[in-house]
């Protein structure tokens, strides 16, 4: 049974969604599922752009076969070798024995690593900036190293302005019929999962995303076809998307907002974080987000930290160290290159509070983090006499947010 949609008059979305997957990459929760996008161009030559994860291989192979409608497949373009896009490659190669694989030198090394070497006759090696004509269409390839993996490239169709963008511009979430951004509630439903996807998957590589933008800067992008999530095809949506990516890849906050990352064993540190939230609210700050780190997957916090200008880290001491859920979060903040945020700290300890000092040291290893002074230190629980200290932190945060109030 065919389950496809046309993207242009001769190019078809032949991807599929997986709503059963609990953890993408076996680490990121995907309660809204995930889509694996693949596209088929029916020109004088037929071209398949990337493929899918094995979980949806059956739907995908049926879609490709039905869309080819008896024609042979001439090319398989591999923009990205990660298994979520390549685990059906061997089946494709045997189902379509005349198809040649288009990739760069690094692509073929990875094919050999994951699978087996590909015969010379089936390889079309392209370099940065090279083109391939398929009849009416001319495809231009741009390498995009580390816009997730080293072998990544994107492909621009010069004849109609379609960009096959690999993992860039992707999102968590499976689509249902409506595959185009202009058909979907992007701001309300999709943006948090777009941001969480970007921050956690590509966030570390902001500089590489910016280099890719430079390469693409002269191009008239009419449609963006990523490997996950919605397809972008209106000028308004594409402008909005590029603005978001410009902010994310340069580690600038999207909003003047506060996110409170609360770690707590018994609830005393959490109580102080809550009091800080109340002080902030009293100063007119709205939309304060607070998450319990033991109950919330770190990927959601990372997403929120890419969004918000101000961060509160609130955490007890644990065996002389930072309570582990906060340690994990700080590791990821550093790993993903998060930078240029203002951070307030609340620490706790019943005999030798250390978490504040240790969190400050972790933040010092990140770029351009402003830590508000002084951190609030609790000895087991917050006493009303300390309210002034929290109020002073709240005032500093609210002062920094003033522009948007
Ligand atoms: C396993 C464990 C290890 C701890 N290690 C330390 C420590 O090294 N230094 C310290 O001052 N407090 C330590 N504590 C005590 C907590 O940091 C302290 O009770 C704190 O007030 C708990 O805050 P909470 O109510 O937000 O969980 C430890 C507690 C636990 C359960
Ligand atoms: Fe990837
Ligand atoms: Fe991917």
TrEMBL record:
All copies of domain Flavodoxin-like, residue ranges: 258-398
How far does the signal peptide extend, from start to end residue? none
Query: What does the record give as cofactor?
Result: Fe cation
Task: Name the source's superkingdom.
Answer: Bacteria
Query: What Pfam families is this protein classified in?
Result: ODP (PF19583)
Q: Which PROSITE patterns match?
A: FLAVODOXIN_LIKE (PS50902)
UniProt entry tagged with the keyword Transport: yes
Keyword set, alphabetical order = Electron transport, Transport
Key word Electron transport present: yes
PANTHER family per UniProt: DIFLAVIN FLAVOPROTEIN A 2-RELATED, FLAVOPROTEIN
Query: Which family does the record claim for this protein?
Result: In the N-terminal section; belongs to the zinc metallo-hydrolase group 3 family.
Q: What is this protein called?
A: FprA family A-type flavoprotein
Q: Which organism is it from?
A: Yanshouia hominis
């Amino acid at each position: 049974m065919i389950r496809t949609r046309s993207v242009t008059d001769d190019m078809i979305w032949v991807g599929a969604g997986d709503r059963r997957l609990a953890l993408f990459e076996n680490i990121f929760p995907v309660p809204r599922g995930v889509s694996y996008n693949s596209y088929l161009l029916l020109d004088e030559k037929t071209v398949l752009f990337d493929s899918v994860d094995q979980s949806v291989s059956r739907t995908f192979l049926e879609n490709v076969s039905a869309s080819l409608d008896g024609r042979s497949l001439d090319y398989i373009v591999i923009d990205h070798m990660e298994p979520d896009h390549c685990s059906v490659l061997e089946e494709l190669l045997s189902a379509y024995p005349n198809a040649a694989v288009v990739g760069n030198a690094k692509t073929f090394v990875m094919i050999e690593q994951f699978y087996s070497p590909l015969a010379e006759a089936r390889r079309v090696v392209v370099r940065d900036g090279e083109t391939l004509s398929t009849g009416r269409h001319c495809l231009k390839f741009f390498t995009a190293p580390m816009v997730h993996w080293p072998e990544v490239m994107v492909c621009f169709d010069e004849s109609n302005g379609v960009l096959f963008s690999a993992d860039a511009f992707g999102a968590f979430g499976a689509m249902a019929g409506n595959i185009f951004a202009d058909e979907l509630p992007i701001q309300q439903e999709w943006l948090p999962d777009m941001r969480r996807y970007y921050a956690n998957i590509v966030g570390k590589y902001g500089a590489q995303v910016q280099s890719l933008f430079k390469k693409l800067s002269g191009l008239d992008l009419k449609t963006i076809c990523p490997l996950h999530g919605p397809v972008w095809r209106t000028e308004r949506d594409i402008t909005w998307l590029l603005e978001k990516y410009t902010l994310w890849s340069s580690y600038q906050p999207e909003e003047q907002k506060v996110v409170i990352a609360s770690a707590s064993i018994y609830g005393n540190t959490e109580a102080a974080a809550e009091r800080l939230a109340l002080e902030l609210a009293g100063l007119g700050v709205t939309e304060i987000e607070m998450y319990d780190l033991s109950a919330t997957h770190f990927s959601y916090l990372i997403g929120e930290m890419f969004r918000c200008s101000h961060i509160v880290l609130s955490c007890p001491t644990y065996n002389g160290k930072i309570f582990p859920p906060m340690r994990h979060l700080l590791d990821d903040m550093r790993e993903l290159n998060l930078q240029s945020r203002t951070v307030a700290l609340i620490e706790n300890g019943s005999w030798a509070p250390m978490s504040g000092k240790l969190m400050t040291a972790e933040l010092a290893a990140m770029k351009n983090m402003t830590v508000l002074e002084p951190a609030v230190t609790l000895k087991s629980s917050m006493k009303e006499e300390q309210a002034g200290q929290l109020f002073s932190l709240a005032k500093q945060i609210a002062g920094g947010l003033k522009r948007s109030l």
